[in-house]
Amino acid sequence: MTQPLLSVRGLQRRFGGITAVKGANLDLCEGELLSVIGPNGAGKTTLFNLISGHDRPDGGTVRFGGVEVTGSTPERLAALGLARTFQHGRVFANLTVRDNVLMGTHSRMKLARPGPPLLGALRELFLALIRPPGVRAEEQALRREVEDILHLFGDRLIPRLDRPAYSLSYANRRRLEIARALALRPRLLMLDEPTAGMNETETAEMRTIIGQLKARGQTILLIEHKLDLVMQLSDRVIAMDDGAEIAAGTPAAVRHDPAVVEAYLGHRHMGGEQTPDAVALEASP
Amino acid sequence: MGAWLDYTINGLIVGNIYALLAVGLALIFGVSHLINFAQGSIYTAGAFIGWTCAQRLGTPLPVTMAAVVLGCAALGVVIERVGLRPLAGSARIAPLLATIGISFVLDQGLQLLYSPDPRSLPSPLPAWRIQVGRGTIGALDILIAATGLVSAAVLFGFLRFSRLGWAVRATAQDSEAARQMGVNTDAVNRTVFAIAAGLGGLSGLLVGMYYNHIDTAMSFQATLKGVVAQVIGGMGNVPGAIAGSLLLGLTESYGVALFGSSYRNLFAFVLLLIVLVLRPNGLFAGRQAMSPEPLTGTFIAPSRPWDVPRWAVAVCVLLAALLPFLPNSAYALQVLTNAWLYALLAISLTLVAGTLGQVSLGHAGLLLIGAYASALLALDSGLPVWLSIPAAGFVTAALGTALTWPAFRLRSHYVSIATLGIGEIVGLVILNWESLTHGPMGVTGVPPLTAGTVELDSPQASYWVALAVLVLLGLMQSRLLGTHLGRTFRAIRDDDVAARACGVSLDRYKGLAFAVSGFAAGISGAISAHLYSYINNETFTSQVSVLALTMVILGGMGNVLGAVIGAVALTGLPEVFRFTAEYRQLIYGLVLLLMIRFRPQGILGTA
Amino acid sequence: MQLTRRAVLAVPALIPFAARAAGPVFAGVSGPLTGPNAQYGAQWKRGFDLALDGINGAGGVKGRPLQYIFEDSQSDPRQSVAVAQKFVADPRVVIELGDFSSPASMAASPIYQRAKLVQFGFTNSHPDFTKGGDHMWSNSTSQAEEQPKLYDFAAALGFKRPAVLHLNTDWGRTAKDAFVAAAKTGGAAVAAVEAYLGTEQDFRPTLVRVRDSNPDGLVLLSYYADGALICRQARDTGIKLPVLAGTSNYSPKFLELGGPGVEDVFVMTTFFPADPRPEVQDFVKRYRAKSGTDPDSFSAGAYDTMVLWAKLVEGWGPTREGMQAGLLEIKDVPSVIYGAATFDPRTRRVQGASYKRLVVQKGQFTLWDGNRPT
Ligand SMILES: Nc1ncnc2c1ncn2[C@@H]1O[C@H](COP(=O)(O)OP(=O)(O)O)[C@@H](O)[C@H]1O
Ligand SMILES: [Mg+2]
Q1: What is residue A147's predicted lDDT score, i.e. its pLDDT?
Q2: What is the residue with the minimal CA distance to atom 8 of ligand 1?
């Protein structure tokens, strides 16, 4: 048996009184698509944040590509080949579509971005001023690649290459974010509710795209509410509620697990559409 | 031992005074997420309204206090309505600039109305004093403490139990959601400004009576101390502001006890930095966890910059270079030389504030470092001037980056306040580090600009030097912005969380941007030192930092050409209005407000 | 509120018709009219205007009225250099007066020096100011001369362990060094030296430090506003020692701002309204009539400067060269501060100010009767 690409053991995160993630475990092998489902507030996004280094766990370990990365910074994980998108969409609003995707290639720039912290940074500055041919060629190659990646989304983004991201529609911003993550050529792609806020056509389109990525052998960790999509794409599914895993296994098995049905029925909100702001307002003192 | 009791009492007394300043600032920040730079001016206005009532009309104290509160509350409402509400839709940076402009107009208006002479404002309270330790406290100390506590209690009750208070809290949480739930957020903002301004005015009156001294130049210091106090307590946290103020007062008092009065502000700003780095939400904030995912790019407005064609820029540069051939142009050249030096500062600031999104208010510190480095290298180490200036650039780049390092982990307003503190610290260290900097005597006899053996001290030569350096550094910066560095800086500005997810190390790129920025600012300071031949710790003050930020915002954040235009406009305007003598600062402030009102994203737009 | 331009234009209307035959002679003034030091600019104008009222009222100098062009520099070096270029390029300007602060003045010095236009920095006590070039002159009292006089006063009051509080600027620092040196020569041990920033308002902790150094008197090298604050707070901190304040504390504002806190404070001054000399009496009478208050040392300095300028124009002609030549030669100009002012051509400063010893009694400055405080 091959070593899993991502391996999470006993991960925990507490926020004041509540424990958002209570001892999560998961293994993800190369080429696999694993979905995490669960009602709102189950702790899925928190789990993502812990894995991608955007939040620090209170306990447990994360191994990625065979190295222990618990509590690492997101930039280190990105350099190791982990890319992610965010539930509410985070694009660089004032950057063009092209520059947004180019940002995704940041950790792959080798010539323009030499290594060690202090001297490397100074060399990076110097190279940016001088722009030697190698650095220029690297940038050109990355620019070409950007267009290749955007072609994945048909004519959704290509015609808007030089528009600022703030001028895009919501669905296009979500696509742009995925494109940016792909530009990292990730070993692991983590998508947090990629179809949230999309209509049916757009969702179907997204399903095709994720399917294509999977077919290419891309390893994917997916958070998704739209169960149809999850059932069609996933190799395995983990269901969470109140920070804990309540079921795991094949899509079909998890779907019919009584604990999962119970969890979804017990929550009025199902589907990822309502704004978290309204919830925050009620909850805050 | 007895002395420490005295220091404690004295610290609490002055902390008491800071508390009155900080509460109003905290309230406005809590609701509008705005550092109200006009709060100090309202404080001054309150003092003068009080003076008019008490000294001219002979009103008794309660009436004076009521008049001050009402007068300043009305002023607050007007400020909110005229200066800030029209900017509601634009980026948060625009209202910030508006409050700076308003404070300008208010201060100058008061100065014209009352003359700049200091005035006495005797307290009508009975003169009895209570012995505490070996010192005494009087009726006014008690009134000030009571006012601070009562106003905090009333505010607390108002926020907690009244319907309007509920609306204020809802707006503070999320003004968009509050609006959707039917809260009249305009009314809320008006109320908040009225309350904060009323409090600010009252503090001006009480502090004026305490020192028996009011003048029209006291606003900036008041804002500064109030901001520091409320950050220590937690921005937007009203009870925290009071606790933070007392702590600030105590720290200052103990600092004076240990090292003397010249070190007082050093202690205040070091405390500020420590708090910001260790507990950015303030010492007294409830432990707030990582904020939930915010939406992107709110501090800087999305806008399309005007694309100025290259040939147009080239033509302007050429015309500027030919200007010295006009006869009788020495005065214009001097003004423009200043403008170019300010423009260097502005492109330096626009890189970190605009492109990187780290709004620094400490650039005066960089100027000082550059000026002192070049002056001392030329004088004490005998370096020729053409070498000492670039060397000063490198020194400033290194020192400036190292000093701002603690602020790298902070965001939005916190960066501004931390850098403001860092800038002040630089000035105070220069004042106190006599063996190196000659302390208060400053550095005299700084040699004039030379290149080899050619003296460049004619107005024409200085002008060309400044222009050439500006063009060179401006081109370099534009070139950098066209590479992956520019892209990365902007990405950090728009969303640092997403930037990290892309593999961007924030420290590295913030460090790079501050180094480039420090280089340009250091060069600007260094050239100034050689032009002026004399510098001291007050040659560049925090007001210069504020002015530079105004230039940057006016030109369009992150926009190199915009920064130059902003610098020329704001250096030129006061000269153009020279014929209006005492009125010129007032007119300048009004013009500034109009510009913000009608083009909040700056003349050329955000780049 | 008076507008400079208007002031400039209004003056000729007051001048007898004959005087208008030739145009006015101009001085350029670079100083703060706005910004944090605006109060000093306002005082200058009062002193200037009063002097000009007298001079022009008497027909001007050789039939030509004197006028000044006040350009606001905010006492900021960036603006004072621009103002300097303006004056240098204006052929009407025969002398420049100001700026207020050392950074502003000294930044502009190279420009005036190159243009051979006299820069008369009448408030610039920085010892290096007049070293900026042979066209930099000042009649501001020299600290090297003044501080030994202040120490003599302190000694006369019986101070053997004085504590010194000084403004931490070039001026305050120069003054402090000179005072400490004089005290050493005089055999007194300075108990404590405390520097404070110009923006300081809260002196209580500093005063506790001072108190705990067990001095037998306080010496204030401060401006009147901070001096008044220190005196008030000294009483609140439980300090009952005698206080001696230096010359820049002499101002009616010191009494107003200090209130009961400055009662019994000793003040040394170069200028005292009760001085029987006719030029002082004339100045004080007219100042009171015009402004309703007593003059202070800042307006006295401005007044003196205008009077001096008139003498220069009279004796050496209304030209830039005349001003420089005159300053080198002029002797015994009547002065409310100096009695008679004569410049040392090497230091380009004035020696021999006359000092008065005052004490505040019942809220008024009165001449000290020589009785030591108990
Ligand atoms: N930064 C935070 N501070 C406090 N509580 C948080 C924070 N982030 C998430 N939570 C809480 O943790 C729980 C899990 O949230 P989340 O991971 O966003 O759930 P999901 O993504 O499954 O909807 C929720 O109760 C949420 O309120
Ligand atoms: Mg989620």
Answers
A1: 92
A2: B292
**Are both C86 and C186 inside the same structural domain?**
no
C234 located within any domain: yes
**Domains delineated in chain A:** 6-91+186-283 (3.40.50.300), 92-167 (no CATH)
Distance, in Å, from the CA atom of C26 to the CA atom of B45, rounded to the nearest integer, reads 38
Q: Do chains C and A touch (3 or more CB pairs under 8 A)?
A: no
Residues C54 and C95 grouped into a single domain = yes
C166 domain residue, yes or no: yes
Distance between CA atoms of residues B197 and B73, nearest Å: 5
pLDDT tens-place string over residues C14-36: 444 444 447 899 999 999 998 88
Per-position b or e across C255-274, b if 16+ CB within 10 A of its CB: bbbbbebbbebbbbbbbbbe
For residues C53 and C172, membership in a common domain is answered with: no
Mean pLDDT of all residues in B113-130: 87
Strands A188-192 and A82-84: parallel
Query: If we measure between CA atoms, which residue out of A5, A23, A37, A6 comes closest to residue A264?
Result: A37
DSSP H stretches of helix in B162-184 = 163-173, 175-180
* Residue C360 lies inside a defined structural domain of this protein: yes
B285 band by pLDDT with thresholds 50, 70 and 90: low
Same domain flag for C134 and C208 = no
Whether A85 is in the pocket of ligand 1, judged by its Cβ within 6 Å, is no
% helix, strand, coil for chain A, step of 5:
45, 20, 35
C-alpha to C-alpha distance for B367 and C325, rounded to whole angstroms: 40
Residues C363 and C239 in one domain: yes
Q: pTM (2 decimals)?
A: 0.91
CATH of the domain at C298: 3.40.50.2300
Q: Which of A21, A38, A45 has the alpha carbon at shortest distance from A261?
A: A38
3-state SS, residue B269: helix
Whether the CB-CB separation of C136 and C183 falls below 8 Å is answered with no
Residue at C59 is within a domain: yes
Query: Alpha helices, DSSP H only, in A33-158?
Result: 44-52, 74-80, 97-104, 117-130, 133-151
Is the ipTM reported for this complex over the cut 0.85?
A: yes
Ligand (nearest to CA of A20): 1
Number of domains in chain C: 2
CA angle B97, B102, B107 (to 5 degrees): 130
Cβ distance B559 to B604 under 8 Å?
yes
CA distance B301 to chain A (A): 9
Distance from CA of B516 to the nearest CA of A (A): 9
Domain residues for the domain of C170 are 144-269+356-367
> In B362-457, which ranges are E strands?
450-451, 454-455
Atom 11 (ligand 1) nearest CA: A20
Q: Which of B305, B291, B306, B410 is nearest to B359 (CA)?
A: B410
